[in-house]
Amino acid sequence: MDNFGNYTLLETHVNDVHLDNAAIKEKHTLEADESNVSGKKAVCGFKASDAENLEAHVEIHLSSSSPRPAVKPKSLKTLSNMSNEATCMSCLVCGIQFNDIKKLNIHINGHFSVPNTPLSPDTCAMNNLDLICPVCTMIFHDAEFLQAHVNGHFSVPQTPVEELKDRKIAEEIELKGKHVKKLAEQREFETLQSEYGGIDDKNNYKKQSDKNLQKAVCKGQLSITAYYNNLADELECSAEEVDSGRSCTIGVLEKIKSYYTSAAQNVRCVWLCSTSSHYAASYGDRGWGCGYRNFQMLLSALAKNTTYKDLLFNGKMQIPSIEKIQQLIECAWQKEFDVEGCKQLDGGVVKTAKWIGATEIVAVLSSLKVKCQLIDFHHPTGANGTHPALFSWVKEYFHKPLSFKPPLYLQHHGHSRTIVGIEELQDASLRLLIFDPSTTKKQMQQFHSDIDDNLMRTLRRPLSAMKAKQYQIVAVVGTLSEHDYNESKLIRSDRVP
To answer: Which ranges of 280-351 would DSSP assign to H, the alpha helix?
Structure first.
């Protein structure tokens, strides 16, 4: 600091050079006209008896790089008083007291002149500085607001570590939910196996057939001659990929038409599909082959139509065996039809006892350029869990004035059947007419004799008898163009309602 021999020059220098701000000048102007003052005064009113002491005091105010304090000390003692008692000076910023002016000077400089020293909120507020959050660098102008904001970063609900824990917990809950769902599906599958006689898909079609044939012989249901005939039929079907027809019953619909013209009672009207044969479950597929057998019923009707006969059978009326249908399903998957269904069945069904459903039927027919409509009756629409919407849809389908009406493939929980017609009774109620693969060939052959109402109960299903939670129907509605062919690779359903 420059030395001034004259107090007036020192005062002028301080006011003009260091206190260049008008407001500060006004606040800190020397009171020259004060009376009863011995010695000279500094900018804050401090009195000194000589130049050296005044210079040391002013240095406190004018430390190089330190902002000028805006707060005056509560009390400043004159050197004359200090000479008679212990000197006690307070820091203008934090209030700490010092007995040595030089130590106080160094201390005050430490508040303002040390590089990269963070300022406290109180210090920033005192010097009109912005308050900056040390976590996110958001700027505040109020110390209390800043404090609350910083605390918010480290409170339990907002701590980043807690957020990570919450996310981890959510992921674990989701994984646990998927695991529980998978276990539930597995239990449901096992229940269905028990209910419908299903077996492990690792046991293939031939193994189950041989096992069931042996059981039938042991129970007296099958003679030794019939046993070997069945084995021979299986070998022939496997070689030629054509169903033997041993479980097939033909001509049932024709006999039913005669019944409605003469013996039917309380029936106002009936609508039937085009000619179709019944295929019953055999020893080899009993309990799991209903999907294949219903597909054979549908194909038996399509084979009698010129358009579908040429498209599906190369002009030959040959119904594929179960093993051939399995090959057709995998072929459709290879063409990228029903990719999701392929994943669900682990990409393979050939020589297994895996169940198939409506989507596999649609995939095969679509891959062969047959247009299908998949209708999803996803929840009951009537009282007591009934499905009047399904019955209305079926009536509308069969009521259409078409020359060819294929039967409908009906899928529901654990089983599938074929709808071959619908009755409307005198009270306007409806009854479905159904071919069920679980109905044996022996039972179906009774329709070749006289038909009465008691026998018709084998086929009739009123509204009260159809209470599954969901139903799906596959309807053949034409052929596919090249554009529609590619679009049909993704299986879509029409939901009703």
So the answer is: 290-302, 306-313, 322-334, 339-344
d(CA 305, CA 403): 10
DSSP class of residue 20?
A: -
- d(CA 194, CA 196) in angstroms, rounded, equals 6
DSSP β-ladder status, 494-495 and 370-377: parallel
**Residues 82, 33: contact at Cβ < 8 Å?**
no
Q: What is the dihedral of CA 175, 178, 180, 184, to 10 degrees?
A: -170
Q: Are 321 and 238 spatial neighbours (Cβ–Cβ below 8 Å)? A: yes
Burial class (CB in 10 A: 0-12, 13-18, 19+), 65: exposed
Q: Does the N-terminal peptide bond of residue 160 adopt cis geometry, omega within 30 degrees of 0? A: no
Render the burial of 380-397: b for 16+ CB within 10 Å, e for the rest: bbeeeebbebbbebbbeb
Catalytic residue among 233, 243, 285, 436: 436
Tokens of 176: 């646990």
Smallest Cα–Cα separation from 284: which of 239, 233, 324?
Answer: 233
Annotated catalytic residue 436: yes
> What per-residue confidence (pLDDT) applies to 141?
67
Helix (H, G, I), strand (E, B) or coil at 386: coil
What is the pTM assigned to this prediction?
Answer: 0.62
496 by DSSP, 3-state: which? coil
Gap between the terminal Cα atoms of the chain: 94
Determine whether 202 is exposed, middle or buried from the number of CB atoms within 10 Å of its CB (0-12, 13-18, 19+): exposed
409's CB contacts (< 8 A; 6+ apart) are: 294, 295, 298, 358, 361, 416, 418, 473, 474, 475
Pick the catalytic residue: 61, 387, 412, 415? 415
379 carries an active-site annotation? no
Name which of 242, 234, 290 is nearest 410 in CA terms: 290
Q: Measured between alpha carbons, how far is 271 from 407 in angstroms, rounded to an integer?
A: 11
- Which residues neighbour 218 within 8 Å (Cβ) at sequence distance 6 or greater? none
Q: How many angstroms separate the CA atoms of 69 and 48, rounded?
A: 20
Q: What is the CA radius of gyration of the chain?
A: 49
Q: Annotated catalytic, 133? A: no
Query: How many whole angstroms separate alpha carbon 86 and alpha carbon 45?
Result: 20
The β-bridge partners of 41 are: 47
Options 237, 248, 290, 372, the catalytic residue: 290
Provide block-wise average pLDDT over 10 residues at a time, the chain (497 residues): 52 54 44 42 56 64 46 40 52 72 69 48 49 70 70 57 63 78 67 48 67 85 85 75 92 95 91 97 88 98 94 89 94 96 91 92 97 97 97 97 96 95 97 97 96 95 96 97 94 94
